[in-house]
């Protein structure tokens, strides 16, 4: 019997105190007690999003928030610039196409970040583009896109908004929504917010709410105007995921106790230790130039079965990592360090990776990667 441990970039480990909070007897969502919980959650989300705007809570996966961002701000036939640098960049395009929007793709090599200058040139060439859609962290590649610079490109264009998928970035990466001028930011519960899947979040700037007033795309469940009206009264328009909201209050308390900037520093430390361990082992990073603090994507060495490596880490060590998606299937493994992670977790997964690579015939000196990670933590 092996104790399973999640190193996947969603779902991620859930702290014991969050699990205990969710195990409490269920309360009714129209009860005053729930309204008090939800009010605290709303304030905690503003803290994490770094915004004065309402952060709306939806009972859905993060993709639901992505769809809500599209259908509430855009109109039929609108042009949208979609940064496609991975599986989830492609998802932005698929959602937009489903609603009859004119997708202008900006294809980026998987493992590289988008060049803001290319975005600016595209907007100058086509002023009719109404939105730029991008991931903060592209989960399929471990790339961190330059959101701050993209916001600077879009901010002065009254007819264009910046829509950011921060699902695997919020709570791990510093994304000050108001200060940078991000117009729409979406997130999900099962990443750095340390919850099970099932909740999604979306916040809109005043500029983006102006777009909502002009949008003509169909919506019912994801009507953000209706949802904002209800949530400002500490209620949800539809039945909420009550236990997850109770757990969210606890995870937001944990983030506030640690302090947001310290949370970011912890993620940077874990990421740097992981990357230096990988390089010391003679392996290649998929995104060496723009790595995310949320996860590390590692190229599987020549001659090693990528799917087998992923499977053996789980079967032999109980460690659940992620493989590659799309064209990267079987070619990379992805190790997450977002949310409820500490240095000992990194040392554990690196040690197991070394052992398994050696078993699979990769020439590696055991302990070299672990030592590199230890040096980061020691310093």
Percentage of residues in DSSP E strands: 15-25%
Overall structural class, as computed from helix and strand content, comes to alpha/beta
Describe the main β-sheet briefly: 7 strands, mixed
For CATH, the homologous superfamily of the largest domain is named as Type I PLP-dependent aspartate aminotransferase-like (Major domain)
Name the helix and strand elements from N-terminus to C-terminus, one letter apiece.
Answer: EHHEHEHEHEEEHEHEEHHHHEEHEEEHH
- Within the CATH hierarchy, at the fold level, what is the topology of the largest domain? Aspartate Aminotransferase, domain 2
Give the overall silhouette.
Answer: globular
* CATH top level class name of the largest domain: Alpha Beta
Provide structural commentary.
The protein folds into 2 domains: 5-10 and 259-378, Alpha-Beta Complex (Aspartate Aminotransferase, domain 1); 16-257, Aspartate Aminotransferase, domain 2 (3-Layer(aba) Sandwich). Helix content is 44%, strand content 16%. The protein contains 14 helices and 15 strands. The two termini are 36 Å apart. The protein is α/β, with parallel strands linked by helices and 379 residues long. The chain is globular and about 60 Å long.
């Amino acid at each position: 019997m092996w104790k399973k441990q999640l190193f996947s970039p969603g779902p991620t480990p859930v702290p014991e105190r969050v699990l205990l909070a969710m195990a409490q007897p269920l309360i009714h969502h129209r009860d005053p007690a729930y309204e008090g919980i939800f009010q605290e959650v709303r304030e905690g989300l503003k803290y994490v999003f770094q915004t004065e705007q309402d952060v709306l809570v939806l009972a859905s996966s993060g993709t639901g928030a992505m769809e809500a961002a599209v259908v509430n701000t855009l109109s039929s036939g609108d042009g949208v610039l979609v940064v496609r640098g991975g599986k989830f960049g492609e998802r932005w395009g698929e959602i937009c196409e489903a609603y009859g929007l004119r997708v202008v793709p900006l294809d980026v090599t998987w493992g590289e970040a988008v060049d803001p200058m290319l975005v600016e040139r595209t907007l100058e060439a086509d002023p009719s583009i109404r939105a730029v859609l991008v991931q903060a962290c592209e989960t399929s590649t471990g790339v961190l896109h330059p959101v701050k610079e993209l916001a600077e490109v879009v901010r002065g264009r009254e007819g264009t908004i910046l829509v950011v998928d921060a699902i695997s970035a919020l709570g791990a990466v510093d994304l000050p929504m108001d200060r940078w001028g991000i117009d729409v930011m979406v997130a999900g519960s099962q990443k750095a917010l340390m919850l099970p899947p099932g909740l999604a979040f979306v916040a809109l700037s005043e500029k983006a709410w102006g777009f909502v007033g002009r949008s003509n795309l169909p919506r019912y469940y994801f009507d953000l105007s209706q949802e904002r009206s209800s949530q400002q009264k500490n209620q949800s328009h539809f039945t909420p995921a009550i236990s997850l909201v109770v757990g969210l209050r606890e995870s937001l308390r944990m983030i506030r106790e640690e302090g947001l900037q310290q949370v970011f520093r912890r993620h940077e430390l874990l990421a740097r230790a992981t990357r230096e361990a990988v390089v010391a082992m003679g392996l290649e990073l998929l995104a060496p130039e723009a790595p995310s603090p949320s996860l590390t994507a590692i190229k599987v060495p020549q001659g090693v079965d990528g799917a087998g490596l992923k499977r053996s880490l789980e079967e032999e060590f109980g460690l659940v990592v992620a493989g590659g998606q799309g064209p990267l299937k079987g070619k990379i493994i992805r190790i997450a360090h977002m949310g409820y992670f500490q240095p000992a977790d990194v040392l554990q997964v690196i040690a197991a990776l070394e052992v398994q690579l050696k078993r699979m015939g990769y020439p590696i000196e055991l302990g070299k990667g672990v030592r590199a990670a230890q040096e980061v933590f020691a310093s």
